[in-house]
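Might I ask for a little of your time on a matter of protein folding? Here, with my thanks, is the record as I have it:
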Amino acid sequence: MDAEKASETNPGGRPVAFLCRVLGVSRSAYYAWQATRPARRVRQRDEDELVGQIRVLHAGSRGAYGAPRIHAALRRAGRVVNVKRVERLMRVHRIVGITRRRRGGLTRQAKRAVFAADLIRRDFTAPRPGMRLVGDMTELVTAEGKIYLATCIDLATREVIGWAVADHHRAELPVAALRMAASRGALEPGCIMHTDRGSEYTSDEFRKEVRKLGMRQSMGRVGSCYDNAAAESWFAVLKAEIGTSVWATRAEVRADVFRFIEVEYNRSRLRQHPEFGYITPLETRARLQHDLTPAA
């Protein structure tokens, strides 16, 4: 190497041979490293771009998505990438999904309750929409006081097809959620409505509404969260993603719950289906209904 070239490569003006001897590397290794610099720059730019996409998807999920869902979202966006690479980049850049915490129960058993049989028996699956629903309630805290949310979830799609919010948790709250589910969920005759044994669900008002809608009521055992695990799991998602702070007003909670259920969860949040892979609840419904539609 001539002096001019050595000066360009080494600002101190030291010969390459001298620097290689000091560092204990061969000149061929040095020149090989130099030759790969353009490729390394390209790879670094690609990695920086990928990390940026991961951050956008992670923020869009309210910080909820871990590596599997981030990987699925990237593939849906047309980015072909290995899940192990996503895991590595998220670990290196400390991008972490939300870990769910087990919530405390809200519903309480009535003293003279009329119980229904457990028709689910911890089988939280359904071959088609409108066949099996699970319901539960939770409380959210605001500066104006507590507010309560009741939901009805279709086990075939895991879509929240019925929900209601109120400043109380009397029986009319889950009844309102059930009526919404019946109006939009295309329920089958004899559709199962499964809940815990809270007083709201053993009430005459709720039991009458179930019969009126041509449904069958089902209940888990007392004190066993596993008997209503699908509903418990959904509320864990809700609490992890939007229930981590105290809202200023009840109106803010209503708006946040609406946005989470109708915009983010049902339409955007990816969930792993055993047959279809990572898709949203609404996409699951569309796929199942398409598969069940007879050919013309």
User: Anything to note?
Assistant: The longest helix spans residues 37-60. Residues 178 and 275 are 28 Å apart (CA to CA). DSSP finds twelve helices and seven strands in the chain. Residues 1-8 have pLDDT under 50 and may be disordered.
